Amino acid sequence: MATNKLLRDEDMIKANTWSCVTGAGLKKYQALSLNNGAVIQAVSSRDYGNMALHTGDQPEQVIFNRKLFLDSLYLNLENLVTAEQIHSTNIQIVDKSHLGAGALSLQTALSKTDALITAERGVVLGILTADCLPIFIYDPMTPAIAIIHAGWRGTIAEISRLTMDRMIHDFKTDPGNCQVAIGPSICSACFEVSSEVADLFGKVNSETVIPTESGFEVDLSGFNSYLLQHAGVKPEHIDIANLCTGCHNEDFFSYRIEKGTKGRMMGIISLQ
Ligand SMILES: [Zn+2]
Q1: Which of 26, 62, 154, 202 ranks highest by number of CB atoms within 10 Å?
Q2: How many whole angstroms from 87 Cα to the centroid of ligand 1?
Q3: How much of the chain, in percent, has pLDDT values that exceed 90?
């Protein structure tokens, strides 16, 4: 376990794009390129506890956990906007009228949505994950931000490309200016799939499908990176955390490894 930890920290330092920040003994993960004064972005670790209101934990405890996490970033829980995530490609533009949606109760979360975009300062966009990919986009020129929940279904349905298309359409975003970060999520070695699922990915980008003795593995971060590059994002502007929720289950909740955990991490991004 200790060796794993050492390797992981070395890996991150080598990549030099994400950092593990510890405050009051609690870890969170932040993309260096997105925490530049104009934007605040982070993903909680399991140190902060479960961030989801829909998995059966006491709401009071979840709200306490959310507040602890957002307080550590000097952000206000009342400004959080979350969605009822359903592995769709539904995208919603968020403005100040949505402030607090889903922050304190499940009923007020934006319904059936897996990506949020805003050009409003102070709005805190949040999504919940435990293996799925939290993807963050920052358009510094508009400025505008987006957050995406991409599991394998959303990934193959191209939610990351569709979100970029929506930013181009609604905000005249130039993808060439955008900075993207892909957070802690399931690695290819932990994500073995059937040949049917592998085929879906292989038809679009065969490089992200890895045959093994027992089946196929899919690199979901690599696939989303491919889609975003195809949409015009520069490869050097895509920072992949390379932190697997399954391999590092001591730090992250993993739906797959824990066979259906209640725990979810929260990813957030906010324009300042
Ligand atoms: Zn893994």
Answers
A1: 154
A2: 21
A3: 93
